[in-house]
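Hi U.,

Before I forget, here's the chain from the pilot set. I'm dumping it here mostly so it's searchable later in email.
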Amino acid sequence: MHRYEGMDMTNRFFPVFSLVPLLVAALLAMPVGASAAGSTVVSQELDIALGYAGQGATRFDPGSELHAGLKYVASPQVTNDLLLRWGAEWQRFTFPAPRPFTVPVTLQQVNAIIGFDYQLAEQWLMRAELQPGVYGDAGLFEGQRFDAPLTMGFAYLIDADLQWFFGLRVDLKSQYPVFPALGVRWKFADLWTLNLQLPEPRLEYDVNSKLQAYFGAAILAGTFVVGDHFGTDRNLPQLNHATLDYTELRLGPGFSWKARPNLTLEAAAGYQLYRSWDFFDQHIDATGHPVPYLQFACHARF
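Structure:
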């Protein structure tokens, strides 16, 4: 009989949650408008996300979910038209209930961020970003887990109230190696904004200068490679070292509070309508039932 390490993986996950209050407190204490040493202007971004999705309705459902993400990007300004982007990102999904299921207990990624922002013309902006790193399950650094997804996007700025966005994501390991996207941000009234940008399209309402309410969706997705013995442990040897696309779709309301000019705190709740673990090469696809979710996030810009 094989031993499943679901609870052990969860115990490793919770220390991340305990660090969040310390990170938020440090950001609140950070002086506003701090600049980098020297003449080069460097803007910085820090994003933290923590979430939970509930247990499915049946014993065949893959179970509850814990999600955490941490992303840091620094952008030195090279010229008036060009900003470089470099940083790092960590993201982890944990499905803690121990059981002999085809779903991995853990999916996670650790990757660098290498890219740039460039102003092509007065009304046109471009962003390109490469994310080389490792994308796998519990044994993240075992085997060949390297991947380097590429994201490219263009923005057409009609005016302060209306902008169009065009983009695509290229991941040669995914079932869909090229995924195009189209979006728009339209402030159609003083307090209302239709912000249809992937991966978080939403309708926003400005309660006041610091508080915003919204209703929208969120798409979380990625391509991962499982371990060399993943399938053997489940009597499905064809899944050893297999590639899977993970996708989830959330829908619900949320609030965004500008605690400081450089710090925004966010909370959202609703239903996770769909999630899928698709071993597309082996034609094995596990899906979950709709479940409630809760998400907290922190966004710092300095």
